[in-house]
Amino acid sequence: MQRTDDIGWLSIGLSERGRFTILDHGRLDHVVSELGDPANQYPALCVYIGAKAKDACLRQLYQYNNIKRHVSAAEVKLRYDMGSLETSRPVLFADGGLEYKSSTSSSMIGCVKTERSISWDSPFIFIITGGDSAADYNSDRSPLERGEEYMEQVEQFHCKLDKNSPETLSECFSAIHFMRLERSHLSECARYERLRVLITGQLDDMYTVRKDHGAIFNATHLVALFRLALQHTAEDICRSFDFVKATREQNEVPVSSSMAIAHYLDIGTKAGVYYEELAPSISSALVMDHYVPGMLALEPRAVFQALYRSVVFDALQITPVNQPYRTIDELAGMVERNMVEQFHKLESTGQSSLEFRREHLRESSGRLCRIRSNKICLVCLLRVAQHRLDCGHAVCDLCAQLFGSPAAGLEYSFTITACLCCLYQRPLVIDVLPPTMNPTILAIDGGGVRGVIPLEFLNLIQENLGLCPLQDLIDLAIGTSSGA
C-alpha cells in the first residue's frame, strides 16, 4: 500500500469559547524535513485559491505531482513541487478555498501542532502569509456570482478590508494580473502554459527583489519566520509583521544598550577621541551584534532602523558630543552609514562579523586604546564589564567566549592571549558562568565571634574540596570587617 501523507497545513477553527482560532498542523515542518539541504535551499511559496478549476490547474502546473492522491479536511494544504525538490530553489505550493467550514473545531481535527486564538474581531478571515505568488480561480464560482452579484460581494469585501486594515488589498501585492484560460481547440497542457510561464516569471522576479533587499530565506529560516508571523497575525492584523525584529526573537538587543553606548561616548570624548572615530567603532560593534553566524543577510539600513536607531539616538541625547553643527539625527546617521559600508565590506570579503570586529579593533587600537572603563565591555560595547585585563580594558562573559580559546582541562574557562583593544600581550584565563548555574555569592558578617566562626567554616570546606580552591567556586564575595 502506498503511503499517503496528510497534506493539511492550516485550518480555521472555533475554540470552546466560540472564538476563531488558526490551527497549524505542522505541515511546513514536515515539508522542509523532506528537503535534501534545508540550510542551503531557498523555497518559493505559491498560493492557489479555488476549487475544481484550481485542482485542474495544479495537475497541469505540477505534472510530477499526483494531485488527486492526497486529500485533507484542512482549509489550506501544502505540498512541494517534485520537479524542483532537489534544486536550490524548490517550489512549495499551498491551495485551498475561501469558504469557512462551520463544523470545524479544534477538537474535531487531529494532529494539530499549534492553535492560535485570534484576538481581533472581524467578520471575515483571509490569510496569505509569506507567499511569493497567489492565484484565484474565478471559474469556480457560479455564473450568477460572476455577474453583478459577484461584483457587489467584492465591493462589500473591500469595505470590510478597508475597515479592518490600514492598507488597501492591492498594496499587499507587487503586481496583479488577470488571465483568461481558453477552453476550446487547446490541449490541457497548452491551455495552462501561459499561466505557468507567468508564475515562473513572478517567482524569478520575487527572488531578484528578495536578493536585492537581503531577504532570501532558506528553508530553516522560513519555518521559524512563518511560526512567528502566524503568531503575530493572530494577535494583531493591523500592524505589519517586522521581519527584522523577528530574527531577534530569541536574542534581543540588550536593554542597557543606550546607557552603554552613552557611557562609551562619554569616556571616548574624555580620552580625546573624536566622534568621527567613535561612530565607526560603534557601527562595527552593532554589525557583530546582529550578523551572527546563520543570520539572514538583511539590508543593514532596515536593521539599523528597526533595532539600533533608537538606541543610538537615546545615547546621543544622554551624552551630547562636541558636534555643534550637526543634529542628533545627523550624528545617528553617521553610525548608520558606517554600518552600511561595513556590511557591504563584510559581504565582499566573506569575513564573519566576529573577525571583522577583531580587525577593526586592531586597526583602531592606536587611538581607541586610550579608552578604558570598568562599567562596559569595550569589545561589544553593549554589555556590562565582567572581567578586567591587566591593561585596564574590560570584557564581558560573551566576548570572552567568542574571542577566547577554551582553556585546557577546564570547563567554561577561556584564555584570551592578548587584549583586543590595545594588543597588550598577556594571557588571561577567564571563568564564565555556566548557562545552567546561578551566581554563587558569599556574604560574611564581621566583628568579634561572628567574624571568626565563618572563617573556620570556610577552612573546613576547603579541606573537603582538596586541590580545588574555594575562591574558584565563588562569583561574588562581600562582607565587613573580618568578612572583607
The helix/strand series, from N terminus to C terminus, equals EEHEHEEEEHHHHHHHHHHEEHEEEEHE
- The average pLDDT score comes to 84
Low-pLDDT residue intervals, each spanning 5 or more residues: none
What Rg, in angstroms, do the CA atoms define? Answer: 30 Å
Q: Structural class, from helix and strand content?
A: alpha+beta
Number of helical regions? 14
Please provide the count of β strands.
14
Strand order of the largest sheet: 6-2-1-4-5-3-7
The level of helicity is 25-40%
Strand content: 5-15%
Q: What is the terminal separation in angstroms?
A: 77 Å
Describe this protein's structure.
By secondary structure, the chain is an alpha+beta fold. The protein has 3 domains: 8-241, no CATH class; 257-431, no CATH class; 441-483, no CATH class. It contains 14 helices and 14 strands. The protein has helices at 27-33, 52-61, 148-164, 188-191, 193-212, 219-235, 243-246, 257-270, 275-290, 300-318, 328-349, 353-368, 397-403, 449-465; strands spanning 8-14, 20-24, 44-49, 76-80, 91-96, 114-117, 133-136, 387-388, 394-395, 405-406, 413-418, 425-431, 441-444, 476-479. The longest helix has 22 residues, at 328-349.
What is the gist of this entry?
With 484 residues, this protein is α+β, with helices and mostly antiparallel strands.
List keywords for this structure.
alpha+beta, three-stranded antiparallel sheet, 13% strand
Helix and strand arrangement:
Blueprint: E1 8-14, E2 20-24, H1 27-33, E3 44-49, H2 52-61, E4 76-80, E5 91-96, E6 114-117, E7 133-136, H3 148-164, H4 188-191, H5 193-212, H6 219-235, H7 243-246, H8 257-270, H9 275-290, H10 300-318, H11 328-349, H12 353-368, E8 387-388, E9 394-395, H13 397-403, E10 405-406, E11 413-418, E12 425-431, E13 441-444, H14 449-465, E14 476-479
Parallel strand pairs: 3-5, 3-7, 13-14
Antiparallel strand pairs: 1-2, 1-4, 2-6, 4-5, 8-9, 10-11, 11-12
